[in-house]
Amino acid sequence: MPSSHDFIKDKRNKNIKIYINGKFFIREKAKISVFDSSILLGDGIWSGIRFHNNNFLFLKDHLNRLFDDAKKISLKIHLTKKQISKILFDTIKINKMKTDVHLRLIISRGIKSTPYQDPVFTISKPTIIIIPEYKQPQESIYKKGLVLKTVKTIRGPHNVQDPRINSLSKLNCILACIEAKKQKADEALMFDIKGNIATNNSTHFFYVKENCVYTSTGKYCVKGITRQKVIDLCKKNKIKVKEIDFKLKDVLKADESFVTGTFANIIPVKKINSKKFNLKKNIITNKLRNLYLELMEKN
Q: Of 134, 164, 194, which residue is a domain's last?
């Protein structure tokens, strides 16, 4: 069964150098303290970024989101966006990478003096980690498509754990993922607190009906960079697109469906619950993917 995160194994990843707080470590020696906020509490933020043809894709957007998320959780990043950008390029340079790279940029609140929640017990500057890996999506996922299943785990309200923040605390999404896997699905299709479709556990959800592209309002999902690029591409290329609330019954009447994510860009959906899609008729999905691939080359 394909997955939105299936990738081609690459032996070069065994020898990658990982950045941690100003130093580089080979993969097997890259370690952080057991008192780090990320380990103790999942306290921090992150972003997944693609490096394609000697260039970071949409780096400004990723850094803007990162700093916005940090502000929302009162995490003071001690470096500027320009400084973090330089570290990202240094990471690529020291690893002699050129393309087909996926980087995980992680910023935790830092080291704790003791395993308590209160930020007052943080005794260091934020921990910054960059993990670069050679990663290419399995080409088969674009031909086979994904299976989505609705789950009981929902995207929660903003005053519980804001689902718009790309935090290290991913338990909500993990539980949804586990539910979906038990149903032999690739990803979970999640509802919001009002019973509308919100997003998937690790990608963003779209469907197509009568040549119009639909996606959620974004109130209960992470601010997806690829998601926004697809919305922008629709508007630029005169493809109708609507960011609205919709129910599962609307999705089950769709003509096409696809998901988006930084790693594999646009992936078609072949089945949602018992609803099957004919991927050979994915006119809009294929058009948007081609437009996105063109955008990648222009970035």
A: 134
**Same-domain pairing of 123 and 150:** no
Do both 164 and 111 map to the same domain?
A: no
146 with 293, same domain? yes
Q: What is the CATH number of the domain that holds 129?
A: 3.30.470.10
- Please report, in tens digits, the pLDDT of each residue of the chain (299 residues total): 556 677 879 999 999 999 999 999 999 999 999 999 999 999 999 999 999 999 999 999 999 999 999 999 999 999 999 999 999 999 999 999 999 999 999 999 999 999 999 999 999 999 999 999 999 998 899 999 999 999 999 999 999 999 999 999 999 999 999 999 999 999 999 999 999 999 999 999 999 999 999 999 999 999 999 999 999 999 999 999 999 999 999 999 999 999 999 999 999 999 999 999 999 999 999 999 999 999 999 88
Q: How far apart are CA 182 and CA 179, in angstroms?
A: 5
- Calpha distance 190→60 (Å, rounded): 29
Domain that holds residue 53: 11-134
Give the residue among 124, 102, 97, 107 at the shortest CA–CA distance from 35.
124
Domain boundary residue, one of 111, 134, 157: 134
Q: Does residue 196 lie within any of the structural domains?
A: yes
DSSP letters for 219-277: TTS---HHHHHHHHHHHHTT-EEEE----HHHHTT-SEEEEEETTTEEEEEEEETTEE-
Residue 107 shares a structural domain with residue 168 = no
